[in-house]
Amino acid sequence: MMIRNAKRRAALLAVAGAAILGLGLSGCAGGGGGNDSSSEGRTLRVWAGSQTPIEANFNPFSPTVLHAALGPIYEPLFFYNKTADDAPSPMLGESFEYNEDGTVITVKLKDGVKWSDGEDFSAADAAFTFNYEPNHRDGLVSAEAPDDTTLVLTYSTPQYTNEFQILGTTWMLPEHIWKDVDDYSTFTDEDPVGTGPYVVDKVTDASYTVVANENFREEGVPAIKKVQYIGIDANQSAQDLLTAGKLDWTGMFVPNPDSVTDKGVISMINTPQDPTVLYTCSNAELGCTGPQTDVAVRQALNVAIDRGTIKEKAFVGLTGDISPAFTLMPRDAKWLADPANETSPQSPDAAAAGEILEAAGYTKGGDGFYGKDGTPIELSLISVDGWTDYNDAAKLISEEAAEAGIKVTASTVQWQEFSDARQTGQYQLIMGGVIGTSVADPFQIYKDWFTGESTSQVGQEVPTGRWNFSRYDNPIVNEAVAAAAATNDEAVKKEAYAKVQTEIVRDLPYIPLVINATQTFYNSKDFTGWPTEDDLYAFPPAWGSVAAGYILQHLEPVK
Predict the structure, then answer these.
(1) 477 lies in a domain?
(2) In what order do the strands lie in the sheet with 140-147?
(3) Burial class (CB within 10 angstroms; exposed 0-12, middle 13-18, buried 19+) of 82
(4) What's the domain of life for this entry (predicted)?
(5) How many domains does the chain have?
(6) Is 288:281 a contact under the CB 8 Å cutoff?
(7) pLDDT (tens digit, 9 = 90+) per residue, 339-392?
(8) CATH label of the domain that carries residue 97
(9) How buried is residue 147: exposed, middle or buried, by Cβ count under 10 Å (0-12/13-18/19+)?
(10) At what angle do helices 13-23 and 235-243 cross, to 10 degrees?
(11) Whether residue 137 sits in one domain with residue 35
């Protein structure tokens, strides 16, 4: 998740210059100045969301993993383009097929691939990867390598709907390195060995640099030989660097993009994909505490929110409308069971919020706020300091809730506090994002964000690779998701999704707000090969998992 952009306009190049010196940016200025008129050999400078001080951690299982690990260094078997309903592209895998009942996936791997340390990559590494503890899930019975280029994955149930997760998000691990890792949860992997186009060169408090992997499987790739990922603590600093020509690629929210693109160096593309929501720690049985554990409070807050105003004032009209069924419309239209759930209410209804609360036994006090049994509804809403569009949205929600008699106090915290709170469930409300699906199907959201297997008791971190921060655990949802995972029959999946949608639209463990603007800024003067509206071959922001590494393989310097 990125740091969100400040609403203020502060293009002070002196400030940008100071930031550049502090970060120690390498390479000439490219389109923004400097003595070298060519961008050949120049370092590509990226901000993918890291804040300072940067700590070396390239472990793909770590919640604080540095972005270059996921795609530029480690790779899955296939690439799935989340911006389109396309077949996956080969990466380490060449092809795959299911058996008749969907319980066995046989993958043909590319021959001649090497790890970045020169060792051969083989099916034995892939089998080791799937048998490795955090990847041994979804009813995996066995992962075997009958020969060097064949991987056979056997499951206890059909895995058609889990295809993307299995083949598109499982990072291949070198057995000769990871077999000696005693505790994957604490391993920082400071010198990672992967199959991707880059290897780590240097890490400092302010930035880290990756350079071309000399053992990469495609000759001449990557054409960009050095990439520097910098740490920035506020969006405005990143915007200033873009404006000054000192940053080449980032994904962040800028309310006035023309101020960045008007010099003809930086271009912008907006690809709204991911839901922005209020996380609620919803499940008292798993240890959540606070008024938000009452579904009536969540329902009342849902109808009290003025999404139209939030869209215009906090996100300057760049976001999309969200569905409470978490279907990305219109892409996922065929999976929406009830047309009434196409869009969350855009206008507030304080009277309806009051009716919901009063029906649940709450009464309005003399101060205008609701409570029950002498205890007022008082909710704490946190967002990350510096994510100012999110901060602005949180303030608006606080004001809108007050109009409906619900007291919400908004405050900001540092990234690490935010991360710890959502991981352990020790919060009431959080402004946050949901990772959208990489295929035209909401299954992955339902599984990773709404099922009981994807969460844990408050005080414990959610399982690796899962995201159910709300601690939601509904047997009907769990069973329906399992049914969807076990079928390749579209009608059966639709029936299962209808059950999921009925439950989550009513229960609101995540209160939907908007489909977040996803602006990507990139240096189109000095580098070519970027995803564009005419050729959206990958999700474009620099923080995109898998996609970032795929994009870097397509980039070339302008000669």
Answers:
(1) yes
(2) 93-98, 104-109, 150-155, 140-147
(3) buried
(4) Bacteria
(5) 3
(6) yes
(7) 999 999 999 999 999 999 999 999 999 999 999 998 999 999 999 998 888 999
(8) 3.90.76.10
(9) exposed
(10) 100
(11) no
The first and second tokens of residue 66, run together, are 């540095």
- Are residues 381 and 411 in contact, defined by beta-carbon separation less than 8 angstroms? yes
DSSP 120: B
Paired with 79 in beta bridges are 89
Tokens of 467: 């995201």
pLDDT digits (tens, 9 = 90+) for 195-211: 999 999 999 999 999 99
User: In this predicted structure, what is the pLDDT of residue 7?
Assistant: 29
DSSP annotation string for 188-249: --SS---SSSEEEEEE-SSEEEEEE-TT-SSTT--SS-EEEEE--SSHHHHHHHHHTT---E
The closest of 263, 130, 190 to 199, measured between CA atoms, is 190
414 and 511 part of one domain: yes
Strands 527-528, 89-90: pairing kind:
unpaired
What residue numbers bound the domain in which 35 lies?
Answer: 13-73+196-270+519-557
Q: Which of 143, 178, 213 is the last residue of a domain?
A: 178
Q: What are residue 513's phi and psi, to 5 degrees?
A: -120, -65
> Where residue 111 falls among pLDDT bands split at 50, 70, 90?
very high
- Listed residue (126, 215, 218) closest to 171, CA to CA: 126
With beta carbons less than 8 A apart as the criterion, state whether 215 and 114 touch. yes
For residues 515 and 321, the answer to whether their CB atoms sit within 8 Å is yes
- Whether the Cβ atoms of residue 79 and residue 91 lie closer than 8 Å to each other: yes
Pairing of strands 378-384, 407-413: parallel
Give the best-scoring range by mean pLDDT among 12-16, 229-233, 404-408.
404-408
CB-CB contact of 436 with 328 (8 Å): yes
**Cβ neighbours for 351, distance < 8 A, ≥ 6 positions apart:** none
Residues 547, 556, 215, 63: is their CA dihedral positive or negative?
Answer: negative
Question: What is the spatial distance between Cα 129 and Cα 265, in angstroms, rounded to a whole number?
Answer: 42
Kindly state the percentage of the chain with pLDDT values over 90: 81
Q: What's the pTM value of the predicted model, to 2 decimals? A: 0.75
Considering the domain boundaries, does residue 185 fall inside one? no
Torsion of CA 445, 284, 393, 4, to 10 degrees: -60
pLDDT digits (tens, 9 = 90+) for 152-169: 999 999 998 889 999 999
Residue type, 318: L
Neighbours of 204 (CB within 10 A): 15
Q: Is 189 a domain residue?
A: no
Nearest 5°: the CA angle 244, 246, 249 is 115
Q: Please give the pLDDT value at position 344.
A: 98
Tokens of residue 388, six digits: 């100012």
- CATH assignment at residue 435: 3.10.105.10
Q: Is residue 541 located within the same domain as residue 496? A: no
pLDDT value, residue 18: 32
Distance between the two ends of the chain, CA-based, in angstroms?
A: 34
68 phi-psi bin (left φ>0, alpha ψ -120 to 50, beta other): alpha
